[in-house]
Amino acid sequence: MRTPASRRGKGSNPSALSQQVITDAAQRILDEEGHESLSMRRLARSLSITPMALYHHVRDKDELLILLLAKKAQSYPRPELPEEPRERLVAASQLLYDLLSEAAFLSEILTSPDLLAVAVSWITDSITEAAAACGLRPEDATKAQQLIWRYTAGELLALQSRRRLKQGTSKRPSSAIAEASAEKHPRITSMSARWPDLIAQNTHRRGLENIVDGILAAHRRDAHLPSG
Amino acid sequence: MRTPASRRGKGSNPSALSQQVITDAAQRILDEEGHESLSMRRLARSLSITPMALYHHVRDKDELLILLLAKKAQSYPRPELPEEPRERLVAASQLLYDLLSEAAFLSEILTSPDLLAVAVSWITDSITEAAAACGLRPEDATKAQQLIWRYTAGELLALQSRRRLKQGTSKRPSSAIAEASAEKHPRITSMSARWPDLIAQNTHRRGLENIVDGILAAHRRDAHLPSG
DNA sequence: ACCTGAACACCGTTCAAGT
DNA sequence: ACCTGAACACCGTTCAAGT
């Protein structure tokens, strides 16, 4: 009983399934149909194979996504970073944000920050290095990197919801929520009116600089106090 | 509010279904089985009703989750905040983090920050107010609140993954990822060895203070430059 | 070793109908 | 108005078997 699976076209060898082929196909789905469409089953269909065939090359969906991110990180342009340490710290952090904003599927794996961080480590390493060059001890430099990483994660979530808002996939506040929460605070009413404009803005860069300066100021304080 | 705390006989009267009854049952599932177990179907089963009966009282699952959060926010203890503006800003921000860390299902709705923010607006309002009391103009105070909110979101993601790590639901880095990413950076190897200790720490408070001070310093700079 | 077929154990949500 | 039954259109993943 021979399965008449339609030829995979394009490829010369139908049995040429590999991690490379899989991630390429996944990226194509991401680009053409959006990250909501990327499922193991959909991916298998696009390769004319059984979903289970995928599991011979990737452990699970999370691994696939991280792999996708790692590939993007690898091929990402690596600009020369500024000489001046503080500028370098800001630039490397900005780079992290820019790269990750291109990975729309990110929210699904954002809860695995450690795995994620490994995938983009050439950038997070630069951040740590730059922090160290600003005078922070290795330990504090790593903490600084972590702080920036977490802020970046929060900004990326916000970016994602802004995008969905544009797409029109978002939801209206729904009276139930307003009712359940708008009881004891009069202020919100006036503030929420301005909200749409405010959340529409990309405030990442400004925030980043505030944070970097906050870190460096704290360092200078700590460095001066013990000796004086 | 016309809920006279009446009959909710466990299965005796199926017509006693209401938003109150639904959210109570959902909270029970959350508490007893964890947020992964909370689904519309599971919830319906626990109430001995059809999944679709739920949709007469909540629009969809997201609304249910936000409702759950709004309830928690409402019943959360409201401590007296410090008089001193900077201290108040820090304290209110810490409060936001503390409250949200108790909502383990949060990551599912973290991508709707605007809806979320309405649910906990009594805290976010305090943050904005405190920032204004520090001298920021209303617009800048709102931006400060936004910055803090986003950092908090990032910290909460990190917290969540730390919890999963403890639970043992986490994944080992998997050679494929290491292979795909650890090619061009030698530094990562030495750093990732220290990682487990570092990510295990709760660095939120320290980071928060850095950020608050960064914001206030930027404000002082901006306020002084134009006049002098 | 690599892949298939079938199944397991689920999801959120829509629709038409019942009371 | 409130609820059910059945279906739609999916998920990720395991298992045993085939080549």
From TrEMBL, chains A, B:
UniProt region (Disordered), positions on chain: 164-185
Which GO BP terms apply?
A: negative regulation of DNA-templated transcription; response to antibiotic
Spell out the Pfam families in the cross-references.
TetR_C_1, TetR_N
Q: Does the keyword Nucleotide-binding apply?
A: no
Check the record and name the InterPro entries matching this protein: Homeodomain-like_sf (IPR009057), HTH-type_TetR-like_transc_reg (IPR050109), HTH_TetR (IPR001647), Repressor_TetR_C (IPR004111), Tet_transcr_reg_TetR (IPR003012), Tet_transcr_reg_TetR-rel_C_sf (IPR036271)
Which GO MF terms does the UniProt record name? Answer: DNA-binding transcription factor activity; transcription cis-regulatory region binding
Instruction: Supply the alphabetized keyword list.
Output: DNA-binding, Repressor, Transcription, Transcription regulation
- This protein's record includes keyword DNA damage: no
Residues forming the HTH tetR-type domain are 16-76
- Which ranges of the sequence are coiled-coil? none
Q: Which residues bind DNA?
A: 39-58
Q: What is this protein called?
A: HTH tetR-type domain-containing protein
